[in-house]
Amino acid sequence: MSSPESGTPRLRIPTLGxxxxxxxxxxxxxxxxxxxxxxxxxxESGIRYYDTAPHYGLGLSERRLGAFLQTKPREEYVLxxxxxxxxxxxxxxxxxxxxxxxxxVPDDLQRVxxxxxxxxxxxxxESRERLGIERIDLLYLHxxxxxxxxxxxxxxxxxxQQLRDEGGVTAIGIGSMVSEALAAAVRSADLDLIMVAxxxxxxxxxxxxxxxxACRETGTGIVAASVFNSGLLASSEPRRDGRYEYGQxxxxxxxxxxxxxxxxxxxxxxxxxxxxxxPLQAAEVRAVVVGGSRPAQLVQNAEYxxxxxxxxxxxxxxxxxxxxxx
Length: 326
Fold this sequence. Notes:
The chain is an alpha/beta fold. About 35% of the residues lie in helices and about 20% in strands.
């Protein structure tokens, strides 16, 4: 069964999606056969929204995802990719891997920032070639604050709006882990959907301060990504030594995580199920994207997304100040 749909006036989007960084060999290498099995498990579990990016495995994610989706009816799924980084030959390639960016692929290509109108169009055309799919439903500007947010607002987003107006893509937005960048983009451009990575999760909700209000005012939808907070919420029994983004888990967040896990256990709700479904409690959130490098993970995540969670769980978490009251 396909997942329910939400969306914006320009694009209907399934409420559960698969983020395809793992099939770009994020953190560990996957064979083509293993990647296909992951994507097949996602499809068979009813997932019909797929997100990728040139950044993921220096194009490997797009190539693998495209090869898989070419076997499916085009009208049955929604596809998003990203722009902002072009892939160009790496003159310093000496047989190494792209592990500095956590991808286990040869570093024979390098990422080149380009927020110009020509750069945005080149990115889309090159993504189409790698995917082998002409229609891209949703185009995000990827991590603009890591290069030049002002340039993104002045050049990249207007170029993306023009591309959408011409019918080159159906919908546009940005994807970022930085709330300030997300809010600034929402207020400065006519965006359809934004991807909020790790900033609106069961564990922490900084995006509730500025991003959600901006989206509410402008009618911009949100796709929530990284909802497991680097894996901290992926198990019902969190580990103190779990990775938090790029470093150690702060004590205050560990204490918060323990409290959340205890409340979930008291309501007999698996912590990962609550993590997947929490963002969708906000009207601004249209979809949640989850990753996974093993077929069983995709099957489990789809089951968690469909699990009936009692309203009392959200009420207790809000009463304890662990999630925003609504």
